[in-house]
TrEMBL record:
Pfam families found in the cross-reference section: Ldh_1_C, Ldh_1_N
Chain residues that bind beta-D-fructose 1,6-bisphosphate: 152, 167
Principal localisation: cytoplasm
Residues the record lists as binding NAD(+): 9-14, 34, 39, 64, 94, 100, 117-119, 142
Listed pathway(s): Fermentation; pyruvate fermentation to lactate; (S)-lactate from pyruvate: step 1/1
BP GO annotations: glycolytic process; lactate metabolic process
Record entry for activity regulation: Allosterically activated by fructose 1,6-bisphosphate (FBP).
Alphabetic keyword roster: Allosteric enzyme, Cytoplasm, NAD, Oxidoreductase
Family designation: Belongs to the LDH/MDH superfamily. LDH family.
This protein's name: L-lactate dehydrogenase
Assembly information from the UniProt record: Homotetramer.
């Protein structure tokens, strides 16, 4: 299947997504759009000069009208998070950028599935949903897909088990109020505590999982990367390309992405991440994983934190 994918924003995240997509069989056309014309032209040249090792692909530095016919539009534009800065502090500046982009890109590609990556992603997904005029199923925030990947990596290291055997998720805001619903986390179909006990019985050299410390790792690791190298872009690019793969697949998959809530778990009129059905028709709905009362309270608290920010914004 050949697909056309447009990426708005040629910064580190957008360029890395384009590079990763350039080696995926499902992408046959990539359009990169950025206000910095020379930067985007340079990124395209650098990427396309390495495409001789794959089947032919079109990669261009374009404008909004070049997005016509896109299957997916990925929005990465925005001011990058600085060391010590929270995602929420970025809110109004990046909301203004989204507001300027939205009418132009929606006019060019009204039928595309939109993946919002810019931070704060939940706030920007909400704003895009409110102002774009598009059906909600076409709008997907990358949400806690990256957080979930970080969680699975951390659990994999702790238990010395392949990440593909781990099913655990991060819910809520892509940020400090996110949390892990441990009641639904498992390894090889076993609750995590049961898996630990079973492995100890088999003689494995393991320590019991410190769940608050693991959540802290998920919360802080992105900031640590930013402090050490200035930005995060490899892991988020892989997560977004996987999300593209889910949207272009023949059947639905389950993933933690951000989309509008309509009363699920008592949460309404805000975008955040819970398990959702994602596929060729976009976001098809929420997967009702059972949460404990405490987990529902944590989800509602995360939603309220986002609502407090949204209430202060000029949308």
């Amino acid at each position: 299947m050949s697909s056309k994918i447009t990426i708005i924003g040629a910064g580190s995240v957008g360029a890395t997504i384009a590079y990763k997509l350039s080696y995926e069989d499902f992408a046959s056309e990539i359009v990169m759009i950025d206000i910095n014309k020379e930067k985007v032209e340079g990124e395209v040249m650098d990427i396309e000069q390495g495409t001789c090792f794959r089947s032919p692909i079109s990669i261009i530095a374009g404008d909004y009208e070049d997005a016509k016919g896109s299957d997916i539009v990925i929005i990465t534009s925005g001011i990058a998070r600085k060391p010590g800065q929270t995602r929420i502090e970025l809110a109004q500046t990046n909301v203004n950028i989204i507001k300027s982009i939205t009418p132009e890109i929606v006019k060019a590609a009204p039928d595309a599935k939109y993946i919002i990556v810019s931070n704060p992603v939940d706030v920007l997904t909400y704003v895009f949903t409110k102002i774009s005029g598009l059906p909600e199923n076409q709008i997907i925030g990358s949400g806690t897909l990256l957080d979930t990947a970080r969680l699975r990596y951390g659990l994999s290291r702790h238990f010395n088990v392949a990440q593909k055997n781990i099913h655990a998720y991060v819910y809520g805001e892509h940020g400090d109020s996110s949390f892990v619903p441990w009641s639904g986390a498992n390894i090889a179909s076993m609750p995590i505590d049961d898996y630990y006990k079973a492995m100890k019985d088999l003689g494995a050299d393991l320590t019991e999982l410190d769940k608050p410390a693991m959540e802290e790792y998920v919360h802080k690791s992105g900031g640590q990367v930013i402090a050490k190298k200035g930005a995060t872009f490899y892991a988020v690019a892989v997560s977004v390309v996987e999300l593209c793969n889910l949207v272009l697949a023949a059947s639905d998959s389950v993933a933690t992405v951000s989309s509008m809530m309509h009363g699920e778990y008592g949460v309404d009129d805000v975008c955040l991440s819970v398990l959702s059905l994602v596929g060729p028709n976009g976001v098809q709905g929420k997967v009702p994983m059972h949460l404990t009362d405490e987990e529902v309270e944590r989800l509602q608290a995360s939603a309220n934190k986002l609502k407090e920010v949204i209430a202060q914004l000029d949308i």
